[in-house]
Amino acid sequence: MRVTDTFNAVAGTYDEERRRLIPCFDAFYGAAVEVAAPPLRAALAAGRTPEVLDLGAGTGLLSLLLAAAVPGVRLTLVDGAPAMLARATAQLDARGVPHRTVRADLVDELPPGRYDAVVSALAIHHLDDAGKRALYRRAAAVLTPGGVFVNAEQVAGPTPELDRRYDEVWMRRIAELGASPDEIAASRERMRHDRPATVTDQCRWLAEAGLVDVDCFFKEWRFAVFGGRAA
Ligand SMILES: C[S@@+](CC[C@H](N)C(=O)[O-])C[C@H]1O[C@@H](n2cnc3c(N)ncnc32)[C@H](O)[C@@H]1O
Asked: What CATH number does the domain containing 37 carry?
């Protein structure tokens, strides 16, 4: 089963279980919104509609938070799972947020256009490292000058021991948050598709892609938010 099939199968319950599976949910997504917002506000101030590209957008969780933080944005959501995108459309339509969805693989060409922010949450770790690096290069190439790329991501520990600790802490915390044995088992099954990379490697790949002011803006164990800006 491909990773997008596994998400298609859980699209109906995906949103509801997120806060139980991401212990730092508010700080994690909040940091991504904070990083992406400045060029969007600058576009609005210049009388332009800010364009956002959300890679592996799923049910639109990050897109919805961005649209709430910066009303007036136009979103392009890319994902390989049509059932996830259908939920995103329903939620964005209900809030009157202008958007389009594109069913595509993250290894494909990006939807044509120039974007003030290219954002992603918990999706790019499904690509192998060569795929991540290539995607970072394509994302940097479609940013407007001053545009921002931000990835809110599940990352690998810098050593096997720290990676083991990340997992141990995550398991303990989601159990405390009330994740059921079934939710944990399903999540574990999906995680068999994961290929997380370290923050250090990914920040280096972003700099190699030509971005400046590359940094990790938030990190709590395996959850990190990092990105950079087009010069
Ligand atoms: C964990 S969900 C994250 C969704 C959303 N960004 C969020 O924060 O809730 C991962 C999403 O990435 C999509 N995805 C994973 N690998 C993909 C690929 N190679 N091409 C397109 N979509 C992919 C899945 O279909 C799924 O919707």
From this structure: 3.40.50.150
